[in-house]
Design goal:
The complex is a heterotrimer of chains A (about 300), B (about 300) and C (about 575). With about 300 residues, chain B is mostly beta strands. Helix content of chain B is about 5%, strand content about 50%. Classes of the chains: A mainly beta (about 300), B mainly beta (about 300), C alpha+beta (about 575). Chains in contact: A-B, B-C.
């Protein structure tokens, strides 16, 4: 018992220590590294909306909480959320057009939490008793269709003379840069730098890390994302568009290979590689930021089982 | 102090760990494969020669369909037993089915008073069967969850349901839909849901066609076809079935294909719905008991 | 062999004799014998000279030498018993093997014979005195032979023991069923065993085993020739003594055995023949079966416990054959007349009739018993053995019914098309009903064909055929006459013909329950059943029916349960026999 008491006391003291760090005085708040994470839009059903069991001839209220957990703006425009999976003759009043996603601010250096809002539907359940049906158990599916953007910046080493024999120490050595995630469901995970004389090639690895479906950027594709549409074709899904890639103050998008004529890169098994290069006039190695911007449409769904019972 | 702290901790845990209260669900009514059950007894199963006894039949409707104008008949050996004057061997009956308002179903008790009139000479003990046969019209309203999926190419991986065969349990009637195999048949750019519906008589009685049910309990039978009438509905619209009447052999599954007149395109999305099947038929239940008649020493004949 | 073993074996043999004695003698004789045996055995142990003398009688003392015998006597019997053998003789001579104690057994038998003879003498003077004298003389002779010639004596002792055991077994089995067979079995086994017995042979002469067998065989032959061929035993043994009664029983059993054997063979032959014929008719569909109805009493008329007051009667005596007439019947009247039983008794070969008392005719109701006596004058029969018969002729009624199920043909077909058995649809498990007949001398089998019987509303001619088989249930009686057959068909049916004969000339009436009953009698019945048919074990009739009223037959229900009934009135005769001997 004495040992237990001592352990409990130690735990309590430790938690106090961790929680109550003395603020360092005289320092202004530093901007946090915010470009991380693989989520774009986060969807959650609000508790009890709808409840797990409903009864026929009742109203049904469905509410979703939406939050922008990424680093790109979301909502407004053509971004929509659709509710599907139920028989519209049993649950009526819920349209197939979906509801627009309200504008949601992204996370930033000074805004640690992105924009948050709710979207709700109201429907009416028809009678089941008349048909002598005991229960109806649909799986509600909320599907969000939106466009998003991933921006990644990597400090790369440009070496115009990588094979030059010199005793002079170089500023940097051209090598790959691992980037992790950038606060978006599509992540630029790696930039591989391949220096050549007066030219440097970049191999950029892009991965779909968000758990949803990525498709071509564009309003027409956004509309096709709806579960009430014909659906995205096989050549419209798993594509990201290279918006721009800049280095040394100029765009090197034209040099990039692996893109279709619309500038889309195909992801295979969720991963794709982009090959770009830059010509160098400089004489010695130097570090320079490489900025890559991708645009794409994204679809993600969240299910909710429902039980509707007939009551006399 | 220590004790008080422990109690606080326990109460806190209890409050935190209390299961969330849920609204109790009403019981499922549409289950089981029984319709009418008959319990037949003689108040005196061992009868003395020339005495009388009551044959008591308790009828219960354990299905979900109301029985209206059902007919029951007592079958007895006329040479040995005779109904006492005023009691009827045949009678019409109505019996409510189970519902949310009456989960037990209707119960009725009927009695036939019979008297032993004779025994074969010199026989000390004689056994005779007593049979009650009930014939009535019945209906099965089966509902099965099915998936309507216009996305036959699987473009959208996240779907609220998948098209798959559905096994259906008892529906509160003896003739049951045992399983449904849906098919999303292409119809241009849309799909036309087609369902293969399997039915079987899972009850303990016999199926006859609804028009023949009354004559099944009499001798004026011409044909006793074990056919049922079937209709299917999806989203309140009738389906087009290959046949309206299906022959249901004892112990065997019958099959019928029904397709939706309406097609479904991508605009309707993938959703789960309920396929409703209505089966109308006549049903015959039988119950039997044995009655023993004993002759006392010295008894030869019964008085007229 | 140790002396203990010797005495043990002797004790066992003596116990066997005593077991026999308990049936022969009064209890106080048995006690005396036990006491004598115990005293004798004790004396052997406690009085060494006596024990030595007994052992010496076996010849062991002669082998050991007098010194060994004296030593043994001095050491006492107990040490020798527990030592498992004799103490070695002085000088270290090995112990020779001991002989079987035939001589002790002889002595015990002599004692038994003496007592037996005394009892016989007390029990029956005159004739009875001869028996113990014979036994005593035999025992003396056996003892002398034993002393003089051990080997031969050993054989004789063995023979006496074997014969005593054999006779004991015959005594016990003489009153059992199959006594004849048991007697023959015991005799044969005794002879075979005796031929195989080879008592311990101490001498150098031939082994006496075959001698024992020969002696036993001769003794058996002599015994059975005497009791079967002559009446000598009557002079030797009192007929009222247990031994006398045993001999009489054996004699009767063996004398009747050939007759019974032949009768048995004949019964087997006729039974087999009947069985084969029955199987043929079953195969051709011309034999119908039934089961006997459960009844608290066995129905019929019986002659129980028929016996003779005396199986041997003097020439001036009266022979009284008695028995009990027992009636178990449900019916009190047949054809409106009371149940009449006529008795008669007679001597079988010369047809001499006896007088029946109290009456030769009885009118009976249901369950009654009467004690009857049949008297003959021995003079009328004459000297010798006679077989007397007591027979009872009576009218009896046997009834039967068979349940049948009727259904509309379309209903039957509809159910069969659905692979469903029509009767199973009504929860009926007895789909092949069997006829049930009441007990008695005759048996009735019935059949109405495959169930259910399909009825077509427009076809009155398509009616079922009832097959009826009448068969003798009591094989040791005879059917004298068939008086009436009443066949009742369910309401809605009528009878058209029987075995092809149109029934219009016979009476058919409707009963209160709308059944139709046709009574066959007189010439019509004689036309179906000739005298020859009455002697046959069974006869089958085929009764063609017709539908008179389809609706009444089916009763307004999908299934009709109906019964066909049959009653037959007939005259039957049963007989019992006994054998009596009129002496000179």
């Amino acid at each position: 018992m004495t040992l237990m008491k001592k352990s409990a006391l130690s735990l309590i003291l430790l938690s106090f220590l961790l929680a109550c760090q003395a603020p360092t005085s005289g320092q202004s708040p530093q901007p946090q590294e915010f470009r991380s994470g693989t989520q774009g839009l986060d969807l959650q059903y609000v508790a009890n909306l709808p409840p797990p069991r409903l009864f026929d001839r009742d109203q049904v209220n469905i509410m979703l909480q939406v939050e922008n957990r990424g680093t790109a703006p979301l909502g407004g425009g053509a971004d929509r959320i659709y509710l599907s999976g139920f028989d519209p003759t049993i649950i009526t009043g819920i349209g197939t057009d979906g509801l627009p996603i309200p504008p949601l601010e992204p996370r930033s250096a000074f805004v640690s939490q992105g924009g948050r809002d709710t979207i709700s539907w109201r429907g009416q359940i028809r009678s089941l008793t008349d048909k002598r049906i005991d229960k109806y158990t649909p799986l509600l599916l909320a599907t969000a269709c939106y466009t998003y953007e991933t921006t990644a910046t990597a400090q790369v080493c440009l070496d115009p003379n990588p094979y030059q024999a010199t005793s002079q120490q170089k500023v940097c050595t051209a090598s790959g840069v691992g980037l992790g995630s950038q606060g978006a469901p599509i992540a630029i995970t790696n930039v591989d730098v391949q220096p050549q004389p007066q030219r440097t090639r970049f191999i950029i690895t892009i991965t779909n890390s968000g758990g949803g479906t990525v498709y071509k950027y564009g309003t027409q594709y956004l509309n096709k994302c709806s579960p009430y549409s014909a659906g995205l074709a096989f050549d419209e899904v798993d594509f990201v568009q290279l918006s721009d890639i800049t280095i040394l103050g100029r765009s090197i998008k034209q040099s990039c290979k692996g893109l279709d004529r619309d500038g889309h890169l195909r992801l295979t098994s969720g991963t794709g590689q982009l090959f770009c290069e830059v010509d160098l006039n400089e004489q010695s190695a130097f570090l320079s930021p490489l900025t890559i911007t991708l645009r794409y449409g994204y679809r993600q769904s969240i299910p909710k089982p429902l039980e509707i019972r007939a009551v006399p | 102090m220590r004790t008080f702290g422990c109690w606080l901790l326990i109460i806190g845990l209890l409050i935190g760990c209390t299961a969330p209260t849920t609204v109790p669900a009403p019981p499922d009514i549409a289950k089981g494969t029984d319709a009418l059950t008959i319990d037949l007894r003689a108040t005196n199963p061992e009868l003395i020669m020339c005495q009388q006894t009551d044959l008591v039949a308790t009828l219960r409707n354990l299905g979900t369909t109301n029985i209206e104008r059902g007919l029951y008949t007592f079958i007895i050996e006329d040479q040995v037993l005779k109904p006492v004057t005023g009691t009827n061997r045949k009678k019409l009956f109505d019996l409510e089915g189970r519902s949310q308002y009456n989960p037990q179903g209707g119960i009725e008790q009927t009695t036939l008073k019979v008297k032993n009139t004779a025994l074969p000479p010199q026989i000390e003990t004689y056994q005779t069967p007593i049979i009650l046969q009930a014939c009535y019209q019945y209906e099965t309203l089966a509902s099965a969850p099915i998936c309507i999926d216009p996305d036959v190419l699987g473009k959208n991986p996240a779907k609220p349901c998948t098209v798959a065969p559905v096994s259906v349990g008892g529906q509160g009637a003896p003739v049951a839909v045992t399983r449904i195999e849906p098919t999303m048949a292409p119809a241009g750019n849309d799909i036309r849901p087609t369902f293969t519906i399997y039915l079987q008589n899972l009850g303990s009685g016999r199926v006859v066609s609804a028009p023949d049910v009354e004559s099944a309990c009499t001798t004026t039978t011409t044909t006793l076809n074990p056919t049922v009438e079937i209709a299917a509905f999806l989203q309140n619209r009738p389906l087009r079935c290959t046949q309206r009447e299906v022959r249901l052999e004892q112990g065997k599954e019958a099959r019928i294909a029904c397709e939706s007149e309406q097609t479904y395109g991508p605009a309707q999305g993938t959703f789960s719905s309920i396929l409703e099947v209505e089966i109308t038929y006549g049903y015959i239940n039988t119950a039997s008991q044995s009655l023993t008649i004993n002759r006392l020493p010295g008894q030869e004949r019964c008085p007229p | 062999m140790g002396l203990g073993k010797i005495i043990g074996i002797a004790a066992i043999l003596f116990a066997v004799i005593l077991a026999l004695a308990i049936w022969l003698f009064p209890w106080w004789v048995w006690v005396i014998l036990i006491v004598l045996a115990v005293v004798f055995v004790a004396a052997c142990f406690l009085f060494p000279p006596l024990g030595a003398a007994v052992v010496g009688l076996f010849g062991t003392a002669a082998e050991l030498g007098t010194a060994a015998a004296t030593t043994a006597a001095r050491a006492g019997m107990m040490s020798r018993i527990f030592g498992g053998g004799a103490a070695p003789a002085a000088g270290g001579a090995p112990r020779p093997p001991r002989a079987f104690p035939w001589k002790i057994i002889v002595i015990l038998l002599i004692i038994t014979a003496l007592v037996l003879g005394l009892w016989q003498g007390f029990a029956a003077w005159g004739r009875g005195l001869l028996v113990p004298l014979v036994i005593f003389a035999g025992a003396i002779i056996a003892g002398l032979i034993l002393v003089k010639s051990p080997n031969v004596a050993g054989s004789i002792i063995a023979v006496i023991v074997i014969l005593a055991l054999e006779f004991g077994m015959l005594f016990f089995t003489s009153r059992l069923p199959f006594a004849a067979l048991l007697t023959i079995f015991i005799v044969i086994m005794t002879i075979l065993i005796s031929f195989s017995i080879k008592p311990h042979h101490t001498g150098t002469g031939p082994r006496p085993g075959s001698t024992v067998g020969m002696l036993v065989l001769i003794a058996n032959l002599a015994f059975f020739l005497l009791i079967l061929g002559t009446d000598v035993h009557k002079g030797l043994v009192s007929p009222t003594s247990p031994v006398g009664k045993t001999i009489d029983s054996l004699r009767t059993t063996l004398l009747d055995a050939p007759t019974k054997f032949i009768a048995g063979i004949q019964a087997i032959i006729s039974g087999t023949k009947a069985g084969i014929e029955r199987q043929i008719l079953i195969g051709t569909g011309d034999y119908e079966t039934g089961v006997e109805a459960a009844s608290t009493k066995q129905l019929g008329v019986f002659l129980d416990n028929v016996a003779l007051t005396d199986t041997d009667v003097g020439p001036d005596g009266v022979i009284d054959m008695y028995g009990r007439l027992r009636v178990e019947s449900f019916k009190t009247q047949i054809d409106g007349e009371p149940l009449l039983i006529t008795l008669s008794c007679y001597e079988q070969t010369r047809n001499i009739t006896g007088e029946i008392r109290p009456s030769a005719e009885y009118e009976v109701e249901e369950y009654e018993n009467f004690d009857i006596d049949c008297l003959f004058k021995a003079n009328d029969l004459g000297k010798g053995s006679h077989t007397l018969a007591l027979d009872a002729q009576f009218d009896f009624t046997t009834s039967a019914y068979i349940k049948s199920y009727f259904m509309d043909q379309e209903t039957v077909r509809a159910l069969r098309r659905q692979q469903q058995e029509p009767l199973a649809a009504f929860d009926i498990t007895d789909t092949s009903p069997t006829a049930v007949y009441t007990g008695g001398p005759m048996r009735i089998g019935m059949n109405t064909g495959q169930q259910p019987i399909s009825i077509i509303p427009d076809r009155k001619d398509l009616a079922p055929t009832l097959a009826l088989t009448l068969e003798r249930n009591w094989l040791d009686g005879e059917l004298v006459a068939l008086k009436t057959i009443r066949i009742t068909v369910p309401p809605g049916l009528g009878i058209k013909s029987i075995s092809g004969r149109d029934i219009s000339g016979n009476t058919c009436t409707a009963t209160s329950t709308q059944e139709r009953t046709c009574t066959l009698s007189g010439d019509f019945l004689r036309g179906i059943f000739s005298e020859q048919d009455l002697k046959r074990p069974f006869t089958t009739l085929r009764i063609a029916t017709e539908i008179l009223d389809h609706t009444r037959l089916l009763g307004g229900a999908p299934l009709a349960i109906r019964s066909f009934k049959t009653e037959i009135d007939y005259t039957f005769r049963i007989k019992k026999t006994q054998t009596v001997t009129v002496t000179a």
